[in-house]
Structures are given as structure tokens and as C-alpha cells.
Amino acid sequence: MKYVATDQAAAAIGPYSQGVVSGDMFYSSGQIPLTPAGDIAGDTIGEQARQVFANLKAVLAEAGSSLDNVIKTTVFIKDMNDFAALNEIYASYFGDHKPARSTVEVARLPKDVKVEIEVIAKVK
How far apart are CA 48 and CA 89, in angstroms? Predict the structure, then answer.
């Protein structure tokens, strides 16, 4: 097992790693819209989702993977009224690749952000 850590994504804000590689699989921790400097990226679902994807791309790269190898995502969203806007951004990152996905509306997320996404991916 290998713990994944990169300074190209926000550092973990608790006692966990950004992700873990086990065998040929990568499991990310939930990524929220924190910049590598630790600031919340924007106020809108669009700004925040783009930062989440930047963080996901960085931890996937550090693990030896990419968005193209994602098998499953879990999306936590604070307000389902933002679902359509989030879907548009989500689709722009995955294109024709369509991993399995669950989306759950939650009452609150760390630092009161609007979205958190975790992924499971194959490692090259």
C-alpha cells in the first residue's frame, strides 16, 4: 500500500492521506475546492467544482493515474439545485468517459463548501 501526497493539491485537513494506492487501484479521499495554498476557490458551484477537479487530477497524477482511468466517483453536493451546473462541469472533465457515479445531497461539507468528490481509479 502506498499513501499519495502532492503539493499540487490541497493538503489533507485531518488525519488522512490525499489517497491510497493498493495493488493496481487508487482510492482518493474526498477532494474539496481548496487551492494548494489552502484557500476556498470561489463562491459558485462552477468555481468550486473546477478546483475539485484540479485537485483530483493532481492526486491521480501523483498516484500514476488520470481521469481517464476513473472507475467510480462519489459526489457530495450541498444543494441539489446546483446539480445541473455541476453536471455540465463534470461532463467537461470526463467527456465520453463515463465512470459509475453516485451523487448525494448533504447538509454540510468541510469548510462549508458546495461540493466534494472522491474517486476510485485504475493505476497504470
Answer: 10
Cα separation, 63 vs 55, in Å, equals 12
Q: Residue 59 pairs with which residues in a beta bridge? A: none
Question: 489533507: which residue's cell?
Answer: 12
Burial of 38 (0-12, 13-18, 19+ CB in 10 A): exposed
Q: Is 61 exposed, middle or buried (0-12, 13-18, 19+ CB in 10 A)?
A: middle
Nearest partner of 44 among 108, 117, 114, 118, judged by Cα? 114
Query: Could you report the per-residue pLDDT of 71-110, keeping only the tens digit for each?
Result: 999 999 999 999 999 999 999 999 999 999 999 999 999 9
Is residue 98 helix, strand or coil?
coil
pTM of the model: 0.96
For residue 117, the Cα-to-chain-centroid distance in whole angstroms is 4
The DSSP code for 95 is T
